[in-house]
Amino acid sequence: MSASVLSRYLDPDVLSRLAERHIEPRGLVLGNLAGSHKSPLSGFAVEFAGHREYVRGDDPKHIDWRLYFKRDKYFIKQYEMETNFVCHLVLDVSASMRYGVDRQQKLQYAAQLATTLGHAVVRQSDRVSLTTFDETLGATVPPGNSMAQVMRLTELLDSIEPVKKTRMADCLTELSGRIGRREIVMIFSDFLTDLDALEKSLQRMRYNHHEVVLFHVLHHDELAFEFHGPVKFVGLEVPDELISQPEDLRRAYLKAVGRFVERLETVCHNNRIERVEVDTSRDLAEVLIDYLNHRSRLNRGR
User: How far is CA 86 from CA 49, 120, 132, 159, 195, in A?
Assistant: First the structure.
């Protein structure tokens, strides 16, 4: 893959500004490699967690002899294992994500966000995967934790053609069935979908103890509606066209968007899901720094 393709998704300046920042899971994680995050499983490594009575077959080296002399019974010292986490990046590649130009296009911006976060995950020796979806689940890059994994992500991203509608709820429900352990799921989308159906699929993920983060990616036009007419609006997922004076629509449009965002925020709040609003006119590094700072504060407050 050429350096020019890689540069579409990774900006060296953004990477340097994020170099000292880490992504920590907000809860205990399950993994199958030794790493730097606490696991909910008890083991014999790293941080003391408590005692249990000795049973035949336990390794005597884990006996707490001080407790034996106090209680005249054998107890085993238990510890919290440290483990890696898996971060699943889930990218909406439906036609509505095509809105915008160059780096402010929703899909391009979301792809850059996902790749940069993926790079950060791999840099700290955790694992990252990527799955795309529109009407169905698309291609997947299975979890990996080498820098070659970042190249695999960009290869998949560079092959995307956003032309279909979205069936987000069905796709996320199917994806939830594929990832069986508690992991981190980051979803990048404009979330222009049926929110009632979406909530049910997100509840399935939360039931499986995944940490879920929604990166709500919107173009500045969608947030501010700063058009001046007459303007012809063309549907990206439906073949409708509308010629109008934006001034006549702005108030009602912004009210509708406000209700939609409020409803999505309620879904997130009720299900303990983090929603990150992303305006594609903002500097990408600033968006990620704000997010990681917020995430760090939440972790310190646990």
Answer: 23, 12, 17, 24, 26
Nearest Cα neighbor of 185 from 17, 27, 40 is 27
Domains of the chain: 3-22+85-300 (3.40.50.410), 37-83 (no CATH)
Give the chain's end-to-end CA distance (angstroms, integer): 42
pTM exceeding the 0.85 threshold for the entire prediction: no
Confidence check: pLDDT of 128 > 50: yes
Average pLDDT over residues 70-78: 80
Q: How far apart are CA 86 and CA 25, in angstroms?
A: 10
Its sign, for the CA torsion 196, 168, 141, 124, is: negative
The three-state DSSP-derived secondary structure of the chain is: CCHHHHHCCCCHHHHHHCCCCCCCCCCCCCCCCCCCEEEEEEECCCEEEEEEECCCCCCHHHECHHHHHHHCCCEEEEEEEEECCEEEEEEECCHHHHCCCHHHCHHHHHHHHHHHHHHHHHHCCCEEEEEEECCCEEEEEEEECCHHHHHHHHHHHCCCCCCCCCCHHHHHHHHHHHCCCCCEEEEEECCCCCHHHHHHHHHHHHHCCCEEEEEEEECHHHHHCCCCCCEEEECCCCCCEEEECHHHHHHHHHHHHHHHHHHHHHHHHHCCCEEEEEECCCCHHHHHHHHHHHHHHHHHCC
Asked if 291 contacts 274 with a C-beta cutoff of 8 angstroms, the reply is no
**Each residue's pLDDT tens digit, 165-200:** 999 999 999 999 888 777 899 999 999 999 999 999
